[in-house]
Amino acid sequence: MTVALEIAVTSPAGAIVARDGGADRVELCVGLELGGLTPSQALVESTHETGIPAHALVRCRPGGFVHDRDEVELMVREVRTVLRSGAAGVVVGALRPDGTLDEDSLRRFVDAARSVSPTVEVTLHRAIDHAADPVAAAATLEGLGFTRVLTSGAAPTAGAGAATIARMVAAAGPVQVMAGAGVTPADLPALIATGVAAVHLSAKRPAPDSAHAGVPMGGADDGSAHFVTDAEVVTAARHALDA
Prior knowledge:
The chain is of the alpha/beta class. The protein contains 9 helices and 10 strands. An 8-stranded parallel barrel has the order 1-2-3-4-5-6-7-8, surrounded by 6 helices. Helix 1 packs parallel to helix 2 (41-48) and helix 3 runs parallel beside helix 4.
């Protein structure tokens, strides 16, 4: 089985780097340092024009994954917007306060996506790593209509969660399991051994001369650089998967 390579990007330039380095698709978001947030319509359109399939993250705010009614309504609309703007798929997630999957909200996201395209791919994001029982949650995803799930095996990194990822692969049935979080090319042989269908890397490096000092632009702004996609990491990951 060929293991797919997905790269998280925040710009059309990053998508081009991923495409030229041999990635199969990209996950598109903004605010990668916050775990990723929904990209704008223009960003989705511009990334679509690069030619590589882009799966848009739909997450309306940073923080936890328990969403109120207004947030769910917003994300339902965002699902439709990003798909109509050229996204090849969407990446969504929601939990209940007790740590189980918020199945009602997830069904709404899936239904919204399939109302735009009956065959569109829908990925559950790493909300599953915050679930009370990620393996049990993975077993429900086929019935909810998901294509795949992105997970670190409920660990800080996918490498550390490899044993749980293998259990999730067994539980998920036909739903693809994609390993992600802190993944480097050196981690790929161990992750491939878990049986995953794909691996997910941010493959990022600080952009040169992008840091700033002085007046903060927000409470989380420490003046550090923003990140860009590293061509060498993408190529190394592609080579590791093809070896």
